């Protein structure tokens, strides 16, 4: 959230969106990030593999391949929304006056895109070679491993 604020204040003043619209935009992104985080936590505990390593692999795939999939998903959905002329589902447009239903619809579309992204990542992780990827095996201290996976790597990757 801090980086969203920094980005906002670095934009030229005349290009900034009003606070209410900015909040609606960033809240969709925050909800999407929470969805992916909890999906990764849940998925990392489903197998006999090291949950920290599996979470880290999930996170890194989300930050690389996942970003590309989300970009493609947003472009595809936006094209369909434009083609069908569903004004309230146009990302970042909430009507005048603001309509909460537009935000809810856009948020639902964004979660659907995130679900698609996560499904593709899961399919990629089903490739047998991923079991051989042992990113954190040399780390013996579980607290250090957890700090690296949940704090240090996300700080630098995000």
Automatic annotation (TrEMBL):
The record's section on Pfam families has: STIMATE
**Which keywords does the record carry?**
Membrane, Transmembrane
What GO CC annotations are associated with the protein?
cortical endoplasmic reticulum; membrane
Question: Taxonomically, which superkingdom?
Answer: Eukaryota
Q: What are the GO MF terms of this UniProt record?
A: calcium channel regulator activity
**Which InterPro entries does the UniProt record give?**
STIMATE/YPL162C
PANTHER family given in the database record = STORE-OPERATED CALCIUM ENTRY REGULATOR STIMATE, VACUOLAR MEMBRANE PROTEIN YPL162C
Q: What name does this protein carry?
A: Transmembrane protein 110
Q: Which organism is it from?
A: Phoenicopterus ruber ruber
């Amino acid at each position: 959230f801090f980086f969203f604020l920094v980005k906002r204040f670095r934009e030229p003043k005349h290009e900034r969106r009003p606070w209410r619209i900015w909040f609606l935009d960033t809240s969709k992104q925050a909800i999407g990030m929470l969805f992916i985080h909890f999906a990764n936590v849940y998925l990392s505990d489903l197998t006999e593999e090291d949950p920290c390593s599996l979470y880290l692999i999930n996170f890194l795939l989300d930050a690389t391949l996942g970003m590309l999939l989300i970009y493609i998903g947003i472009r595809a959905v936006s094209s369909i929304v434009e083609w069908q002329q569903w004004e309230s589902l146009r990302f970042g447009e909430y009507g005048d006056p603001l309509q909460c239903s537009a935000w809810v619809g856009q948020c639902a579309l964004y979660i659907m895109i995130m679900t698609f992204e996560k499904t593709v990542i899961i399919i990629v992780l089903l490739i047998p070679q991923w079991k051989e990827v042992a990113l954190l095996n040399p780390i013996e201290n579980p607290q250090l491993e957890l700090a690296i996976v949940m704090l240090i790597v996300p700080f630098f990757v995000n």
